[in-house]
Protein 1
Amino acid sequence: MKVNDYRKLYKPVYHMKPDMIELLQVPPLQFIVQEGRGRLNTLGRPAEDYWAVWKTVNQLKRMSKERNNYQFKLMPHEIVWHEKVSEEEWTFTEMMQVPDSIDFDMYDEANRAVEKRYRKQIMPKTKLIMIDQGFCIQKLHIGHYRESYKTVEELHKYAEDHGYKVSKDRREIYLNPPDCYPTPDRWETIVRLQVKAL
């Protein structure tokens, strides 16, 4: 059975070379998302992360393989950071991209399976939505997640110098999980900002 890897299909969206800023038009993509608000852990990620998105996508992956003979690889964890509520507290949207073949009926069934399996836990609500990020600038941040603000500042400076206005909150795409790469010098994060011409 062929395994479909959307990192390769959308290579400009999910792959970057270091030390450069790229401009790209991101196509509309489908995501499972959950909203969150809370403190950050020592990594700079949400401290209380029940990660209902990941559980739902795993159910969809199993269903797609068993019923449609279609197997896809899990995509990177993504967070859109919204408002800094306090020094260590943020509002954010966590998400993972899923294939267009996932429809609302499959999502509803997968969501019910997650709720049944984890009914004794407090699980965030998820949604299946299409997101059109549009025209963006991005740069690969290598290092600790808590230092990604430096890359954000670089992108804002680039936008200002090249006649663009940042129009949305920043998106961070975590390309490799820290539990597999214990030292921050190997953590890779695409930092992306939506922009429009002034």
Protein 2
Amino acid sequence: MSDHKEARPTMEEWAAYIRGEVASEQTDWMESLLLEDEEAFSHYMQAMDMEAQGLPLLTDPEGFVEQVMHQVEIPETTAKLSELKDKGRRWYEHRLFHYAIAACLTLIFLSAGWFDKLTPVQQQVDAHVSKGSYSDELVKVTTGWLDRMKP
């Protein structure tokens, strides 16, 4: 066989590769060559046509495809699941982070007075201010309720 650092495989070497008669080091090099070189791939396809009569026929091609696809899918899904378990959620994906951002924005909007602009009529706001604050009214209602409960 030819030295793979200087020359490309011959048709006989491709035929030996197809039959599985090539050493593992040579096999790795030939497989990488198939992925990188179009001319090598065309020689491989020609050798495959020459060796087609000697190759076994598939009795159930659809079953073979299903079996291969099942074997390919299993490692991908297990790898994704293990990656998700190991990785966990990122800090910005946690629910608490979203609640904290919403609370901060609400406080900023309240302090800037943006919610004051949402009221339909300024007179209603002025009338409510003259009554007193909600906390004062809440204290009056609570103390009145407590006074009624005392004997």
Protein 3
Amino acid sequence: MVISVVYFVVALGAAVAFGRALDRQLHGPGLRAAWADGLTAEARCTRVRTEERQDADAVPFVHTLPTLEFRTADGRTVAFEERRGRVELAEGDVLTVYYNARDPQAATTRAPSFGMLHLRALVTGAGAVLAAVTATVLALVL
């Protein structure tokens, strides 16, 4: 019984840590901050910069980083480089951006989604259920 309780605590801690790390890796906190106020604006692509990168297998690829410019609700003009989304834009293209009034520089082109809004809770919850089931089986078997 003690082994299954220890396993459950360790597995639950791992699920929490994994959920937190995955959320940060996918820029969850920044996206949720940009979506928090529900503000949107039409942005124009003013420049497209490319970077050569390598994937995990050291295969080179080209990543495009568009610079977008938009006007906030209070009239300020903001320019930012979109690093979170995977959008293929050309100079002059127009699209919707989501931003927070307190930090419009952290705007994004990614639309709010249920998965990104609740990613940490979903991953942690799934890990907790798996940990509970496994701990129960361990308690019954041992």
Protein 4
Amino acid sequence: MKVNWKLLCTGFATAVLLSACTNSDTKPSENTDPNNSEQVSDETATDQGSIVNEDMSEAILTDSDAQPFSMYVLPTYKLTSEEPGRDSLYSEENPSAFMRIETQVAEEETYEYLLDNMQEVLIASRNGEEPKEVQDVFANPSEKEIKNVKAFKVDTETGPVTGVLFEKDNMVIRLTLFDTPEEEYQKDFLNMGQTIK
């Protein structure tokens, strides 16, 4: 009977030791996994906020030739004047992808007029189809002194057309984005558009 108790105790002790070894073996990988998931979470958070303020370190402050504003322009893009009151910011690698920029002094009814007109332009781009409202085109707009943001989008055969209207620095700013079907340039356009001042 004593031998059996000894065997039972020895077996129990061995099981405890094996269990402890197994736990100590798995703890590093468990510690690694949360770190990895935190990194993934951080990367995801970065991606979610990347519609704006991404990869702008090489952007150059550029003045408009036709309007009273300046903005940061990335190296593969060019800002040019279309006509008085309108500029175009286009991709040099694909000039069919561009963003039209219009600014007006923030006066009574200017915002509402440009908003109505923007929706009419989008409706005309899609043969009468109502544009869909887009949310959160800018991350933390108040930190950039951007307010009253409204954005709408329609899909066309050549790619989506997105209108964005907002107020900043006593200006009402309207951006009209003409992108590729894959929306390759939207982030860059919005990143640059929010720097207008």
